[in-house]
TrEMBL record:
Catalytic activity: 3 propionate 3-nitronate + 3 O2 + H2O = 3 3-oxopropanoate + 2 nitrate + nitrite + H2O2 + 3 H(+)
GO terms of molecular function: nitronate monooxygenase activity
Originating species: Nocardia aurantiaca
Protein name: Propionate 3-nitronate monooxygenase
Family: Belongs to the nitronate monooxygenase family. NMO class I subfamily.
Keyword Methyltransferase: no
InterPro entries linked to this entry: Aldolase_TIM, NMO
Lineage: Bacteria, Bacillati, Actinomycetota, Actinomycetes, Mycobacteriales
A Pfam family annotated for this UniProt entry: NMO
SUPFAM superfamilies: Inosine monophosphate dehydrogenase (IMPDH)
Keyword Flavoprotein listed: yes
UniProt entry keywords in alphabetical sequence: Detoxification, Flavoprotein, FMN, Monooxygenase, Oxidoreductase
BP GO terms, sorted: response to toxic substance
Cofactor: FMN
Amino acid sequence: MILDELDTPIVLAPMAGGPSTPELAAAVTEAGGLGFVAAGYLPASELAARIKATRALTAGAFGVNLFFPSEPSPSDRFDTYVRNLAPEFPVGEPRYDSDDWDAKLELLIADPVPVVSTTFGCPSSAEIERLHTAGSEVWVTVTTVAEARQAVAAGADVLIAQGAEAGGHRGVFVDDPADDLTDPLGLLALLQLLRVAVEAPIVAAGGIATGAAVAGALCAGAAAAQLGTVFLRCPEAGTAPLVREAITAATPTMLTRAFTGRRARGLRNRFMVEHPDAPVAYPEIHYATGPLRATARAAGNADAVNLWAGQTHSLAPELPAGELVRALSTDAKKALERVLSRRIQTC
């Protein structure tokens, strides 16, 4: 298993939509962790190019993350929302697509990578078996015990436990509006529940930004920690300048559907606050708000851009990715040594 071969138990979160680059994935792998290339929003041809570019930068293992396709949303669910945006913002045509799922799956079977992970759902047992036959491990992002059990039953090798603290989209299999009435599980709670419920290696994700937090995830039973927001200011990341600047402030985060129709965590801004009742309609709303987000980014308007970030975003340093991985690894080892030392002293 790839997790057993890593020099350090640090996994790069994919971060689709801009921050993910071959350079970032390769730098994390070269530093002893596991880099990831985000396939979300890319056509299969562009994903192939990014895989090729990553291989040119590292001979080490890396993964590719796919968005599992959501079900189409009926137009009467989102028409009013989009129509109400039009007087103030430029909007696009809401539409559905599968994020090129079938073509990307065929690409990864024909040209396999060591790890294929999924977000927003679990592949079928047949799809997982095809990836296994091609030589890839399959990791599935889960947010609940029920999702974890489904993933394990389908044949997933590793579970990525995404706590509520994580930045970007929630990886839920079914985005049910009724879930808005309950608090999503934080990472520590989710790890404890999964360790009891399923027999599978777990990668912890959500709000991890320091070596001590990596150590804490390991102590709670995770085999590795997945970090995303902390890499946003690395020079290898494709993070927009507006986002690089915004995450340094102590702005609180919140969950919203306002930009994409799927719950995601980002820095609180005016657009999120003024549209608390955005409907469940992903990816339709994602495409509808594309022009307004692009216009806001070009104008440097942080109040109308999806500033995806986790709850510990202000801790993100401006360091090369490899240097950051090594610093996190060193601090995690020191934290674990402190814990072990305290345990010995109390015996």
